[in-house]
Design brief:
Layout (H helix, E strand, L loop, with lengths): L1 E3 L1 H8 L13 E7 L26 E2 L6 E3 L4 E4 L4 E3 L6 E9 L8 E7 L5 E2 L5 E3 L7 E4 L1
Antiparallel strand pairs: 1-8, 2-3, 2-7, 4-5, 5-11, 6-10, 7-8, 7-9
Amino acid sequence: MAKVYSIFLDETCQGNVLWKLSGGSTIKAQLTNTSYAQNQETHTVRSDITDDKTAGTTDQTLTLADPVTDTANDRVELDASDITFSSVASGTVGSVILYKVVSGASSDILIAWLDFSGGSITANGGDITIAFNAEGCVALGY
């Protein structure tokens, strides 16, 4: 399931977040531990979730696709290529946070929170691959 942060909608409407294949914003993904309590209204920047980052992981840059309008389901789908977090040593991963890079944790704009349909993932030193849904990372209904 994905939940969009309200700040993402506000910043997108102001033209500050561009989700597109060429010339778009730099969007990254961060793994969070299971203690993260998502709040789509009060969490606005990455520093709101810094303490909940999965230890020892490096945020991954997404390769974006152009938005697709799905008229059958009345939504716009935002997609990206699948990503891999390499050699995640330990901890329990509870979700993935997508954010727009601005200039650091206190200004990076939160976009969406994505949980895992099977619950959490226990890290064991191997890679964790995030395979985004074929209909997009995030869908915005209309």
